[in-house]
Automatic annotation (TrEMBL):
Higher taxonomy: Bacteria, Bacillati, Actinomycetota, Actinomycetes, Kitasatosporales
Spans through the membrane: none
Protein's name in the database: Alpha/beta hydrolase
Domain Glycosyl hydrolase family 95 N-terminal: 15-220
Gene3D superfamilies the UniProt entry points to: 1.50.10.10
Pfam family, one: Glyco_hydro_95_cat
Alpha fucosidase A-like C-terminal domain segment(s): 701-762
The organism of origin for this protein: Streptomyces canarius
Residues in Glycosyl hydrolase family 95 catalytic domain copies: 293-698
InterPro entries: 6-hairpin_glycosidase_sf (IPR008928), 6hp_glycosidase-like_sf (IPR012341), AFCA-like_C (IPR049053), Alpha-L-fucosidase (IPR016518), GH95_cat (IPR054363), GH95_N_dom (IPR027414)
Amino acid sequence: MPDYSHGPAQTPHRLSFARPAGHWLEALPLGNGRIGAMPDGGVERERVLLNDGTAWSGSPASEFAHGRVGAATAREAVAEARQALAEGDHARADAAVRRLQERWTQAYLPFAELTVGVTNPPGEITGYSRHLDLRTAEHVVRYEAGGAVVVRRTVVSHPDRALLMTIDVASGPGVDLTVGLDSPLRVLGRGRGERLVWLTTRMPSDVAPPHEPDAPSPVYDDDRISLRGAVALHWSHDGEDVAAGEAAGRGPSIGPVLAARGVRHVEIVLTTGTTFTAVGAEPRGDERDALAAARRDLDAAVRRGAAALRERQGTDHARLYQRVELQWDGPADARLRQLAFLFHYGRYLLISASRAGGPPATLQGLWNNSMRPPWSSNYTININTQMNYWPADVTDLPECLPPLFDLVEAVSVRGAETARRLYGAGGWCAHHNTDVWAYTSPVGRGEADPAWAFWPLAGAWLCRHLTDHVAFGAGLPFARERAWPMVRGAARFLLDWLVELPDGTLGFSPSSSPENRFVTPTGPRAVDVSSAIDIGIAREVFTSATALAELAGQPDDAVAGAARAALGRLPGPQTDEDGTVREWRGPHVMAEPAHRHLSPLYEAFPGTGVRPEHSAAVARTLDVRGDDSTGWSLAWKLALRARLRHTERLPALIDLALREVDPAAVGEHGGLYPNRLSAHPPFQIDGNFGFTAAIAECVVQSHAGTVDLLPALPSDWPAGRMRGLVARPGVVVDLAWDDDRRLVEARVRRRSDRVGTVRVSLGDASVEVDLAQGPWTLRPGAGGRLPAVAG
């Protein structure tokens, strides 16, 4: 078991350090869905690395800036791949699908840096601490210097679209301060006004990912469209302003700075703006427009005042964060405190990274410090973006889902052209990854391994979140107006992409299984016929299309009818001789038996369709893959073991997810960086979100048509309680368990007006309750019964 006695101090809702951050992965994240901030807690100099969720390279035109694969070329490539697979020639199929590739998606970028220089009173620095409080979303730095107590508080407000930092000096003399702004982007202009400083920037027209090392990056091309941005800052204080001429050169940043002396209280407000308009849409305006947008938000925030800003931010955050809580009934050791913190941290990070009006959370959420980030810090949609949103419905954060739905809608629009051109299909599709411009082509420049570059079912997987949201109680307008059109389009593409196989079943050729490969005489290959995940997703999309057609009042829709008919011709899950789930239609030897992707187990989780007789093959596959892996893969394994109710296997997976990882670590071994962000390595935030969802899956499950209480509590958990989890079809569950992991009491109430009678189960016992009458309380009874009391 890892040693949890070292590292930062933790409570279930707070992470504390006794020194400033020495690395970006020691800084503590703040965000409002648009502005991301990583303050380092410095004493003489506080550096706050800033992100704006809309700060991306390129534009919608970037996908085809260097040409486009034509329909004729694509038809020939697909036909050749199918013929090659029919002849058992995987190498030729591999080469054929490479002809479908474009270049790469664009990158999510760092935006700016706020630097606050502090001239402290002479004397030793003592009593230093910094912490992030998840309940208030506040970063606090405190220390003593020369008899003065300095306290610096920072929040980022969603209601007011602004960052607020206050500095207070208690006792002793005041401090001298400088404030400046800088950016790693191309700076177009800087300015200073009365207690105001600003800068404008341009984002690159192209940024190649690190796995394309021969490509120049970043590229600023005046002939290509790219975003413009701005950051603006205002301060007010009780000290003496230093004149512009005297302040020049004193600040820690290049260009104009603000400076003051003898300050005991200061309020700093910062806002950002860009020419981004919407996911998948063309930018509009120039840097002056971006600055005007930032100034509008800044002026409104300054007029409102620091006290009101903080109150509005606190109320908004608490409204979401306080809905759900995991608690231990007795004294908790360091490991249990860290486990509870990490569960809450996932919800905190999702609230901070994804809110209406901004883009969805990227591979790094809202926080990135690199101009050429790993995998472009984009949306990898063969698991990672999806995992980001696994906790949204089950931990009662539907307010975090609109950015994802906006992305799916934009991808469905642009993906319709991709489906027609590459596959001669109706509907829409997307491949391995996308960006804020809704890129839908295969990537790789004709040179990338199809294991990760060819997979046209990523869009269909994204539809899982639409149908899940409906299943968790979203209103009929959402089902009819948003979910149905997108799921219908995905189903239509799959119907056109299916082929009839020699045995009369329907399948996919060519097909891949993200990002795995199998052994062939010519080397590892990724392309074959009908991967398990492709069939599983098709079964799910066709089932969802049929159900949504009914909700949309279109039961006779042609696509829904065709989907209903196709369901009966899809093969069921297959098992190999070693007892594992077969990953492709034909038997293969895996090139990496412990591969991190668990794609053939899709139907077990996040899907809801695993059959009881198939669970042994799912378990055997997990055994063969092994426990250790990347952070996000550990979270997926934890959720799968919870679905299988393998309570004795959960503690070891949790320990692997909680272990310390050095910021310089490489390789595939997940865990937590000092600031408790999840390691791939490198940093990927999906491991944080996936862990939270997996812990919820241990406590409540609802995929099988009942609200199942305590299905998979880890075998080493002591007495505790969970408040506020949401179960299908829109039921809020509070429950408590004892030291033997037995239910003490549960309370269920409806979250959606669509909910009436639901079945609640505990082991083999179950009871029906009518939630339209109000909440119910349930306690285990004699003889294995589950009595329920209204009220």
